[in-house]
Fold this protein.
Amino acid sequence: MKFPLRFLAAGLAVLLPTAVMADEPYPQKPITVVVPQSPGSVADIMARAVSGPLSKALGQPVVVDNRNGASGIIGAERVARAKPDGYTLFVGSVSTHGLNSGIYKTLSYDPLKDFAPITQIADSPLVIVTSPESQIRTLNELIARAKANPGKLTFASAGNGSGSRFTGELLKASAGIDLTHIPYRGPAEAVAAVVGGEATIAIPSAPSTPTFIKSGRLVPLAVTGTTRSDLLPDVPTTTELGHPSIVFTSWTGLFAPAGTPQSVIDLLYTTTKQVLAQPEVKKVLADAGATPVGSTPAEFRVFVEEQVAKWTKAAKDANIAEN
Amino acid sequence: MNPAIRNTRYFCIGLIYVASGLLFLALSSQYQFGTLSKMGPGYLPTVLAILLTGVGIVSLVLSFFLDGAPLPRPNVRALVLILLAVCGFAFLLERAGLVIALVALLVLGMAASRHNRPDLTSAVTIALLVAFCGLVFVQGLGVPMPYLGSWWH
Amino acid sequence: MDLLSHLQLGLSTAATFDNLLYCFVGVTLGTLIGVLPGLGPVPTIAMLLPLTFGMSPDTAMIMLAGIFYGAQYGGSTSAILVNLPGESSSVITAIEGHQLARQGKAGKALAVAAIGSFVAGTIAAVFIALFAPPLAEMAIRFGAPEYFSLMLCGLVAAVLLANGSLLHGFGMMVLGLLLGLVGTDVNSGIQRFTFGVGELADGVGFVVVAMGLFGLGEIMANLDRQEAGHRPASQVGGLWLSRDDMRRTAGPILRGTLFGSILGILPGGGALLSSFAAYSVEKKISPNRRQFGHGALEGVAAPEAANNAGAQTSFIPMLTLGIPSNPVMALMISAMMIQGIQPGPSVMIDRPELFWGVIASMWIGNVMLLVLNLPMIGLWVKLIAVPYLRLYPAILMLCAVGVFSISSSTFDLYLMAGFGALGYVFAKLELEAAPLLLGLLLGPMMEEYLRRSLLLSGGDIAILFTRPVSATLLAVAAVGTVIVMLPAIKQRRSKVFME
């Protein structure tokens, strides 16, 4: 093994100005992948899982740059304004290309016009969980308890505009119950609040839960995907339990700034698709509870358009807004 | 200054507190105040801004009653040149590049003290510092600072 | 005994050649980025994360952990030498440490910081080994009301810190709290006081403010003194600690370790409060309390011990429950997930070699840091013996480049210049910056916990008084306030009497 500092220097030579010959094929210099979420988040793990093999395949370093904050707006805005040369990419998610359009009256970027979709990386469901101390074992017990004590039960979300907030609102609407929404700083804090007994339920992403469930600190009530999760094969989906409107998958996808040459987009799509098929990458994704997707740029564009429309409507229906 | 003010220090501090308190109070008014059970984003800022204004008023009042020494004279040269050096560096870093921005920062910074002379030692110091910065921050730690900025492209 | 076999497992994991090597690489790199202002452990670990892909999980964790506590070590060096607290934990160290440096006692201050950190690190490692699981259990029961009350205690400590007028210290704290609220509101998601500037969405950066107020402010104040004919001391005296120094600092180090070990466990700002708390307590109970503010060794020993102990115990919630207590721990979790290890309660059972290996490596890392840092003291002291005229341009450069390196934003540089001007005004008005900095750090957290408490209780403020831990903390804060107020009132009386 070489001395890491040299790795560091090499890996970070990224942003040094490197002259690019116009007629030479892409990529000529390191590529930066902006992740608008903090390290350790689902988007971050996806980006890191893909960036290593991607850089091997492309022959240039692919460096993950976390620009988290403000529901991903800071990172998204940065990429929306970046030069569309293929050297700045973006790992978007259901937040930046869906939920935010529903929450914010004015968004500093346009999820459809400012971005060129490349491919959807992965998809993972959320899980509705509670603490064993709550004595609630099933989703129906939760609903019954909430009906008996309106407004007394609480749901911990990972923030006002997070996926867990939306799912909680979908649950409230579908079951006709009243839960008090308690926003937390992030998903880990929301789970901790349920483990510690401060909130009744939380709705984290599936991959973060098995260890807590195995050790008896969390009780899973339902999975919000359309099918059961491989990580939690015994947990029913919301659809099975009669709440087909509570479907939420936390997806991540690769984007470039709008105006990036089609040849670059196509190259990135085919390479990423190959990377997603590699067994090691598959394993990392599976461990993180995500299913690799790898849709074509055209398919992905349609998907994103649907998402933006769906969550804008959901936000309106459930009256979730920047308040 | 008004002879009734016996403690200029208390008076100036009071002014700073009252001014910042009122500024935050005015800005906070655009955010929802909310109730105790559901505090809006404006609740706490408003309360704190009133508190700060209150502290400022007390300090202002005390300045008429407590004795105090006169304020030391500010060193305008140091203040202006140091701030100019930092702002100049910020302005030049991405445009002219690290080398020129650093030279500007150091020349302006050195000029802040009357005791510095534009002699050979100063020039050598600047050269050494620029080299150190490039070696440690850019090469070693990979801070994204271009040696030559956008003006050169 | 169970513990012995666990420690043996840990030591045998940590003492392999690879792990020792990467532990060394980690602490060395950590010290380097700690000494350089700006760039902290978070960006460094984020940059190195992809490299850990190819390592075994325990090696990766040991190296990353080394960067984290190595940076705490290094941060105090620049705080003492040139009054540049590059890490939030070294703000307190700068207060007394830099005074000592100006009196030519930088060597002593650095030695106390290094030894204090080492002792604290050693005790904290044993502490973790003995009590990690029950402590994690305690931490998770710490709810919003408890956190709020704890923060309130911290604020009382902040005002207690101030050496000047109580009224003005209080004002600075409130101003700090207000500045802390700049940025995105956690509850509603709206942006407050940002004037549409994207860089402010995550708040005013702590290091930016600290470098402006302390770093630039100090340069300008020193230039003033030079004009007036004073020169900052550059004579070097007392490189090593006397027997008396050792005796004086033993108590503060142990008390600081206790504060750090306990508060460090709490996710969300606990480790940070510990150095403030340790300093405030020493300032009240030390037989040399008169020296505080003018260079008291105890005032370096206690917070340094506290922040190093706190840095280590902040691993407890992450290792035992998979809950990150600060951004560095969030990165560690990410590193584990990349390795295919699901952080959480099962890590201790499924991967004991990882858990105990990291703990054992902390102790080894602390030995390395001591060996690495003690010989450096002589060199550091020589460095600041350079005439101030030659030294300050270098400090100015470190401020500028350091702040830029945090988030590659020139906006932060303009912001630092603004706080530099403010720092100069504060210095002229003899206003202390420390309460403002603590307010800045605690402001957003306090608001979050208060609002959450009231959301949970349906607006009933009694929730803060009826929960035993919260009530106890509030009582401590109240008693603290009385203790602060009493001498101040007495003093005022005597002042009035004199007039």
Chain C touches chain B through 64 residues (CB under 8 Å). The two ends of chain C are 69 Å apart (CA to CA). The longest strand of chain C covers residues 183-184. Chain C has 21 helices and two strands.
